[in-house]
Amino acid sequence: MIRTVLGDISCGQLGRTLVHEHICCYSEPLFQMSGNHYLDKEALISASVRYLRELKSSHHLNTFMDCTPPNIGRDLELLKEVSYASEVNIIGSTGFYYTQEPILYNTNAATIARCMEQDIASHPIGIIKCAVEDPEISDFSKKLLQATAMAHLDSGLPIVMHTNARNRNGLPALELLLEAGVDPRAVTVGHLSDTDDLDYVSRIASYGCFIGFDRLYDNPTEEYLSRTAQKIKTLAGSGFADRILLSHDALFFNGFESQPVIHEKPRFAYCFDSILPRLPASLGAQIMVDNPARMMLANR
Ligand SMILES: [Zn+2]
Questions:
Q1: Cα 22 to averaged position of ligand 1 atoms, centre (Å)
Q2: Residue 146 in contact with residue 175, Cβ under 8 Å?
Q3: What total of structural domains would you count in the chain?
């Protein structure tokens, strides 16, 4: 079974899935200080429900994986309301973004892992998010990766990892997870659509993990879209078709921008409108339906 914010479903009920998106990211301290002046949650829920319902009817979107961990504004009650009203499955995350915080700085990996395990035991969580950003994997990042591995081994939930493809840190971060005993089939190395270096992507895929083509940018040029589709076809032709995941990494509200606003229609349709038509239909179905289901069930 797969855990959504509204309860467990079978992998056959996932359907067409966007594997790496966000309803919102925000700062809980700023929300405590400024409330609706900073983030109007009712307006956010309305916008999210409206557009997810539209995507469900126009593009058969059935499941939305929300990769926002608690330290950048996960709000499970908000996700439940959006999922209930839109009738789109939403899968929520535990784990930590890479930003250093006082509480994490002084806490060891086992304690951080225990927090994640308690989160998973008491809330409807479906994935563990982790993140590396800098070219060198710092001691702090290593600690978070160790904690992520422990929480995964305890819970069996899949790991979705934000990486910086230009910093080429996905490979060493993946290797750290594997050294900690994680099965590669339980890991998605994310944001690999940000690089054209397919040797790097292939080296990661060769471990048997999922490779996230899970970032598509706003206002894409035709050249960018066809290059992205071509990279997917090349990787599929190299034997990695069963490991490719496609998504946008878009959000309705990014509370870390200088002027945060609620977006009525974030870029959640590019992969349907502009990438899938450039791929063979069978490969498109594999990437949008079969691979997300295998990713969610990996290692269980
Ligand atoms: Zn993201």
A1: 7
A2: no
A3: 1
Per-residue model confidence as pLDDT tens digits over 257-297: 999 999 999 999 999 999 999 999 999 999 999 999 999 99
Q: Give the CATH number of the domain where residue 130 resides.
A: 3.20.20.140
User: How far away, in angstroms, is 20 Cα from ligand 1 center?
Assistant: 6
Contact yes or no for 249/22 (Cβ under 8 A): yes
Distance between CA 295 and CA 157 in Å, rounded? 10
pTM over 0.85: yes
**94 CA distance to ligand 1 middle (Å):** 13
Distances (CA, A) of 293 to 186, 243, 287: 12, 11, 10
Give me ligand 1 centre to Cα 191, in Å.
8
Domain range for 51 is 2-297
Q: What is the pLDDT of residues 74-84, one digit of tens each?
A: 999 999 999 99
